[in-house]
Design goal:
Blueprint (H helix, E strand, L loop, with lengths): L6 E5 L3 H7 L4 H22 L3 E8 L7 H24 L2 E6 L7 H13 L6 E9 L1 H17 L20 H5 L12 E4 L18 E4 L9 H13 L8
Parallel strand pairs: 1-2, 1-5, 2-4, 3-4, 5-6
The structure holds farnesyl diphosphate.
Length: 243
Amino acid sequence: MLNVPNHVAIIMDGNGRWAKKRNMPRLEGHKKGAITARSIIKKSGSLGVRWLTLYAFSTENWARPDKEKKGLFSLMVKSLSEELPLLLKEGIRFRMIGDKKDLPEGLIKIISKAESLTKGNRDLNLSVCVNYSGKNEIVKAVNKMLNDQYHLEPGSKSSSQGEFTFPKIDDLDFKKNMHSSDLPEVDLLLRTGGEKRISNFLLWDIAYSELFFTETLWPEFSEDEFCDILSSFNLRDRRYGNV
Ligand code: FPP
């Protein structure tokens, strides 16, 4: 029987190259990519994957041309508005991970709406990383701990609580302070599009992930290939440093 990974995370790469091969604007690749995302979300739900996390826009993606960024954000608003009924019907809880600040107002609105309307859903936890950086997330967690627990402001030399002893913090305590605190560790990390790198994605939670890379460009990635990858995941011997 297929032992389905609890948490699958995907770097959806190759939209631009898919479009370029067809002499189309890059945005057409992203549009086709959004259709792939829809089918993989549905398939994950039906296979019993509990957590699916998709990388949609990194902090590094701000370097892209304005036209592409604007098009991507509009596409996210459109997809999320259109797919809200599907999220509700399929029992999918939606979360956005990343910094909402700097995103267009319309996008922040629909994200907040989807997050609040799907809050009670329990079948599949879908997280979409937008304006996300794995390094920033870790640094922010450190600042949050210093600020919330010890009232230390950046640059301050002492706490408003006076003297204190900094306690020993373990990785569970640390994780509680991350934006992705609800997300469990990633079991299977997949990147499409042929590149073999992590690109600042979920650095904390991929410590013991099984990594999968495929040459397939994201717009062409199919449910069948997804199932093949889940089957290969089953064959991996996960020893977590043990023998
Ligand atoms: C990477 O391909 C893809 C992105 C930066 C955007 C991903 C966004 C979507 C699939 C659409 C929205 C998704 C949701 C879930 C609403 P690339 O542009 O870097 O491709 P390239 O490497 O071929 O240039």
